[in-house]
Structures are given as structure tokens and as C-alpha cells.
Write a structure and sequence with these properties.
The protein is α/β, with parallel strands linked by helices and about 450 residues long. It has helices at about 15-25, 55, 95-105, 240-245, 300-320, 330-355, 360-365, 370-380, 385-400, 400-425, 430-450; strands at about 5-10, 30-35, 50, 70-80, 85-95, 115-120, 120-130, 130-140, 140-155, 180-190, 200-205, 215-220, 225-230, 260-270, 280, 280-285. It folds into three domains: about 5-45 and about 100-175 and about 270-330, 3-Layer(bba) Sandwich (FAD/NAD(P)-binding domain), CATH 3.50.50; about 65-95 and about 175-270, 2-Layer Sandwich (D-Amino Acid Oxidase, Chain A, domain 2); about 340-450. The strands form two sheets. Strands 1, 2, 6, 7, 8, 9, 15 and 16 form an eight-stranded mixed beta sheet that branches. Strands 3-5-4-11-12-13-10-14 form an eight-stranded mixed beta sheet. A hairpin with a 2-residue loop joins strand 7 (about 120-130) and strand 8.
Length: about 450
């Protein structure tokens, strides 16, 4: 067996598989590893929702109908108490994760330049001369070494490679538990109930049921639904499975007769991207690189894009014959100035939302402090419109809620600052430490100002 490759990919979830798809088509000699088998590929439990634009933006073809469980036309966002609802229109899918992953894999797995190892446990990186040169993997009862010019770390939240990098490398960046959510979900099938508007997925904001997160109800068909909740980590909240069974099962939607098809839970990052996705000889994408939407925790689309940029960076490095941190740096500049800027702004917004009480959330949605039609803009652009703030000022002054207005103004200001900082992401690795200091200052200032307002 040849154990020398152009690229090694550790992890074949959404990010790793998309990276493999692109690199294989570019002609690189690639080895890819995942501890799951074909039947459990892409097995992380989540809401399984994917915006229709995400595959196209990552250079992928539209998914075939065989990989789609349901077509989505809108999202309903419910305030605590469920008397107030926002409806946000947009096209998307509820996908069959396993079929989607196998569809992408099947397009490249038979190529002569691709070796895929399933049921293989990635153990650690091989580091020589202050650079990642390969990985050690357990295959069956043997530990084997594989070497490459570049290793892509895509092992998800476990960060099997990243957690074993030298701690003085900037790419080694542990996550604060408060910047995570712990999720639990069940796939259920109703026995005698047909779901109303199955093309609309639902998100429920309720700090009593899902503190620091939300709970969701995503129809997969007229009778099947993906339902679950995520709670903020590091806060001492009860286990989400316990909350689900003690509180969520009492909701009218779950009071009907149904059977549980499958149930599982998982942690996930809910923050801005890693300060760098590039290290010497290593690229980090997907949950391992915190490439997710901080507000709702969705990571597939962000992981797709990071994988696309990673493949482009490797192609550029190969053409120059430079696989150093500097040679691979375009992954950072492309991702950070694109999705990363929005992600950082939404991280500011996420921190604001997690501090709100049910009463404040309900009040804000009732008075449309961020109008229904502006929610999609805020989510997609990472900004709160000036017109939105002016409307909020009028509403809140008239109703004697100046503190909430002050908080919203701080949020808007710091979303803009965070976004701008990422748009000015450094062109070379040498300037990264200074940039990290500036971005940490922005987030520290925001937290302090928000705390002042109570």
C-alpha cells in the first residue's frame, strides 16, 4: 500500500467529504479516513436542514431528489409563549445525511487518485520540523502511518488532530464551553396525525425549555419530524435529553401518538470561526474549525464553503510548491472575509440573545424591534439596519424601555466592528497575533458594555 499522498483528509463528515470531492476532481492523490462505516456516514445528530444556496456556493451540483427528505419554503420563529411568530421565507431542504454523504463520495471513490478508509480511527498528527507531515491511524488492530504535503483536519467537534497540535501554535485554539451548545434530538413518526404545513420548519425561542439555545420542529414528511433542542454549554444547565423528556414531550405537538425512529445527542460549536484555519502543513474546517452559524448552530453550509476554499488553497500551494502556513494562507483570507465576517457579527448577536429573558424576547418580537422582513437580512448580512434602530428608538421611548434600546444599539455597533475586523483579516501569518489581540478586544469591550446595561 502506498502511504504517501498529496493530501490527507481526517474525517468524512460534510466538510471533509466536500473537500475530498473537490480535490479528487482536481487530480490530487488523496487519502481520506473516517471512523464511521458507509451506513453511518455523516452520522452526527442535528436538524438536517440545509439552505438551497449552500451547495451551489461551494461549487457543488444541486443534490438529487434521492438525498432530500423534504423541501423547505419558510422558517417560523416563535417567541416564548408562542403567541408571536415571525415567518421568514427561503428555499432549503431537510436532507438524508447518510444518502447525501454517500452521493458525494460515490462520485469520487472509484477514482484512481482516491483511497478511502472507513472504520479507521484517526489517532494523532505526525509532526516533523515544526510542521504536520501526516497522521497515525488505527485500522483494525494495526496502527499505521500515512504521509502527505497537507493534512485537512475535519474530524468534527472531537478535533482529533487539532487537540494534539503543539499548544504554542496559533491553530491550537481550545473552545470555551460557553461557546458551545449541547443538542439532543429525536426522529419521530406520527401514527395518526398529519403535520400542518410540512414545508415550513419551526424554531422556538424559550429560555425555560432551551436555555441559551432553542428547540426545533423540522418536518421530514407529512408524518415524520426531526425534533430536538440545544442548550448553551458551560452554564450548568440540565442535560438536554432530560429537558426534552421532562418538558418538551408535554408540548401539544408531542402529545399525539408517535413512535421514535432514532434518538441521539451531540455537542457543537456556536461561535465565530477559529482565529486561523491554517497551520504549518494543516488546514482545519467544519466543526473542528468552528465554521458554523453562531445563532442557530447550523454547520453544513459553512463547512461546505470552508472545504471549497481549502481545496482552492491546496491547489494554489501545489502550483507554487509551497505548503507552508504562508503558502496555504488563502483559506483564511477567503473564508474570513466572506463567511467569517458574517459569522463574527452573528457571534455578537448570539451573545446578546443568550442574555435575554423570555419576557424581553417576547416583548422584542411583539413590538417588532427587528421587523419580520429584516430578520433574513440580519442573518444573511450580519448587520442590523439603521432604519431598524430608528424604528426601535421610537417604539421603546414611547413604551419606556430605554435599556433595551441601549443594548440593541451596542449590539448593532459591535456587530459592525466585528464584521469590519474580519474584512481586514491579515494577508500574511506574521500579522495574525496583532489581529487576534484586536478581535479579542472587540469582544471583551462588547461583553463589558452589555454587562453595564444589566
Amino acid at each position: 500500500m502506498n502511504k504517501r499522498y498529496d493530501v490527507i483528509i481526517a474525517g468524512l463528515g460534510p466538510a471533509g467529504t466536500v473537500a475530498l470531492w473537490h480535490l479528487a476532481r482536481m487530480g490530487f492523490y488523496v487519502a481520506a479516513f473516517d471512523w464511521r462505516t458507509s451506513d453511518t456516514l455523516w452520522g452526527k445528530p442535528c436538524g438536517d436542514a440545509l439552505g438551497a444556496h449552500h451547495p451551489r456556493e461551494a461549487g457543488l451540483p444541486d443534490p438529487p431528489s434521492s438525498t432530500i427528505k423534504n423541501t423547505v419554503k419558510a422558517i417560523d420563529i416563535y417567541a416564548p409563549g408562542e403567541k408571536v411568530r415571525y415567518r421568514v421565507y427561503g428555499d432549503g431542504y431537510i436532507i438524508d445525511r447518510n444518502k447525501f454523504g454517500k452521493w458525494l463520495l460515490s462520485d469520487v471513490i472509484d477514482k484512481d487518485n482516491v483511497d478511502v478508509f472507513l472504520g479507521a480511527k484517526v489517532l494523532e498528527p505526525i509532526i516533523k520540523n515544526n510542521s504536520v507531515k501526516g497522521i497515525r491511524v488505527r485500522i483494525g488492530d494495526r496502527v499505521e502511518e500515512f504521509h502527505a504535503n497537507v493534512v485537512i483536519e475535519a474530524t468534527g467537534f472531537s478535533r482529533a488532530i487539532r487537540n494534539k497540535l503543539p499548544h504554542n501554535w496559533l491553530i491550537y485554539e481550545p473552545i470555551d464551553p460557553k461557546d458551545t451548545n449541547i443538542a439532543y434530538r429525536e426522529i419521530i413518526e406520527y401514527e395518526d396525525y398529519e403535520i400542518e404545513e410540512p414545508e415550513v420548519i419551526r424554531i422556538y425561542l424559550d429560555q425555560e425549555i432551551a436555555p441559551g439555545g432553542y428547540w426545533w420542529y423540522f418536518p421530514e414528511s407529512k408524518h415524520g419530524v426531526n425534533v430536538g433542542l440545544g442548550v448553551q454549554g458551560g452554564m450548568g444547565y440540565p442535560n438536554p435529553m432530560q429537558i426534552y423528556r421532562e418538558k418538551l414531550t408535554k408540548h401539544p405537538l408531542l402529545s399525539r401518538n408517535y413512535k421514535v425512529v432514532t434518538a441521539a445527542g451531540a455537542p457543537l460549536p456556536t461561535r465565530r470561526p477559529s482565529n486561523t484555519l491554517v497551520g504549518p502543513g494543516v488546514l482545519v474546517i467544519g466543526d473542528a474549525g468552528y465554521t458554523v452559524n453562531p445563532v442557530h448552530g447550523g454547520g453544513m453550509g459553512y463547512g461546505f464553503r470552508a472545504a471549497y476554499y481549502a481545496a482552492k488553497a491546496i491547489e494554489e500551494a501545489h502550483n507554487r510548491g509551497d505548503f507552508s502556513e504562508k503558502g496555504l494562507w488563502s483559506l483564511n483570507t477567503n473564508y474570513m472575509r466572506g463567511l467569517g465576517a458574517k459569522q463574527a457579527a452573528l457571534d455578537i448577536f448570539r451573545r446578546f440573545l443568550q442574555r435575554l429573558s423570555n419576557d424581553e424576547i417576547r416583548y422584542g418580537m411583539e413590538k417588532k424591534l427587528i421587523p419580520e422582513q429584516d430578520v433574513l437580512y440580519t442573518s444573511s448580512a450580519g448587520e442590523i439596519k439603521i432604519s431598524t434602530l430608528e424604528k426601535a428608538k421610537i417604539v421603546l421611548r414611547g413604551l419606556r424601555r430605554p435599556s433595551l434600546l441601549a443594548k440593541l444599539k451596542i449590539v448593532a455597533d459591535y456587530m459592525k466592528k466585528a464584521k469590519q475586523a474580519y474584512l481586514e483579516y491579515p494577508e500574511e501569518p506574521e500579522k495574525l497575533p496583532q489581529w487576534i489581540t484586536s478581535i479579542e478586544r472587540i469582544f471583551s469591550e462588547f461583553e463589558a458594555k452589555l454587562a453595564e446595561k444589566g
